[in-house]
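Record 1 of the preview.
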Amino acid sequence: MSKRHVWVLTVVLLAGWAPVQAATIVVDGSASEWGASVADNNASTFNVPVALNLLGTMVEDQDDNAGDGGDLGPNRGGQNYDAEYMAIAHEGSELFMTIVTGQRPDNGFARFAPGDVRIETDLGTYWIEVGGGAGGVAGAAISEGSAGSTYTLNGSGYTTGHDPADALQVAGSIWTNVDVENDPIAPHDPAQFMVNGSSTLVGVADYRYTLDDPQTSEHSVIELSFETSLFAGQTIETVHWSPSCGNDTLNLEINFVPEPTSLALLAIGGLALARRRR
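->
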């Protein structure tokens, strides 16, 4: 085969593959690329960005002052307990997620207990450790690998204790077959998890929790991403998050089926090329 023939074959092969687009989302604790402008005193805005490959968004509320007295119950309890915005997007081989909340450690010990992220698939339930540490102090942003947290609450939903999670249950870690802690407010939905001897570590997400963001005194942002191959063969149906007291909740239905991994696609492409050659 001449050099020219080899060159032509190379051009045709490259033309058959779409270029890989760089992800437009950076897991840094900023919700700006998600169409969220997070600001105090009811100034936050949540606009769906058309540039992202969004699977779904949910705005629970934008009222930073509602129920500031601390009265607990669904969709009540004030800014300290707010679950405001969730968005999920798919880019390349990764699933990205952001959550805007009022859960900050400087809200005070009794009012800080961020719940964990729960993912329901057609084959089971998975949890992502949020962490956060003890309330009542200033808190720097945490990333994947930081210590996890387990909170105890009284019947009114106030935090009464904080314990580090199991040493393996670090922030951003994804688990299945775990022990579940329901929130104390009716209808008592799952809010936290603890690993046990039968739990399985699925993977660790790229993770960021701003905690005390210096640009706002009323909000914090949870942002994470993970490889969709972790859920290969399953349909990711819904994603949930709430404070551990269950005061506000974010529930997003996406019904997402992970695509074959890039390595699998390369194998398919190589097989097709070999057949053409023969």
